[in-house]
Amino acid sequence: MKLGRGKAETSKPVALPGYGDGVTLATASGEAIPARVIESSANTLLVAVTVPIRPLSASELDGIVLEFTAPHGRVRLQGTITMENPADPDVLRLDAPRSLEVLQEREYVRVGAARPVLVHCSRDQLQVESYTVDLSGGGLLLAGPDTLKLGDEIYFQLALSAEELPVTGTAKVVRIDPRGRRGVAFEEISDLDQRRLIRFIFDCQRAERRLGLE
User: Fold this and answer.
1) Predicted confidence band at 5 (pLDDT cuts at 50, 70, 90)?
2) pTM (2 decimals)?
3) CA–CA separation, 191 and 197 (whole Å)
4) Which helix (H) or strand (E) holds 208?
5) Contact 51, 34 (CB under 8 A)
6) Element (H, E) at 99
7) 3-class SS at 191?
8) Of 56, 58, 106, 108, which is most buried, counting CB atoms within 10 Å of its CB?
9) Residue 155 placed within a domain
10) 3-state DSSP call for residue 124?
């Protein structure tokens, strides 16, 4: 089951990020480049890459998708992308933006829980043991590994207990916090595994409440 993938809304105005908003520039090769909006109008966005990058070729610019989170979900935009100034490759202009799709994001209860996770990264084919810092029905916050980069796609096996089969699926790294922990959002997870995970979260909440009462 693919989570939260909606259809493009062609009948509504294109949602655009505002001045100062953080966005991600996703290249056709799978890179996820963090950036920030420095100018926003109805037909143009000017964004500044927040980490130094090499100058992108015309074909790389042509394949870029700009992603950002809006109140109704995660929005993906494409249009004509050019360098604002060839001498400054970190500033890019997106003209005539059009919405590709809106990825609907549900709000899930999140609970702190340290559970072992086996992470397999599709980029480098490495398999690494890690553990969760917290988890929800829509994703996990992982303690590591620090080799995971923004935009990386992973296959995970999450052990809820020693007595039952692990929860498995695929996910994408959507954020890295200042402590180096990786936030991953589920891409594919079965209905059964998601229900098991949500039940585990509710059990953790009940246990926390009981401890609080005691």
Assistant:
1) very low
2) 0.50
3) 10
4) helix 191-213
5) yes
6) strand 88-103
7) helix
8) 56
9) yes
10) coil
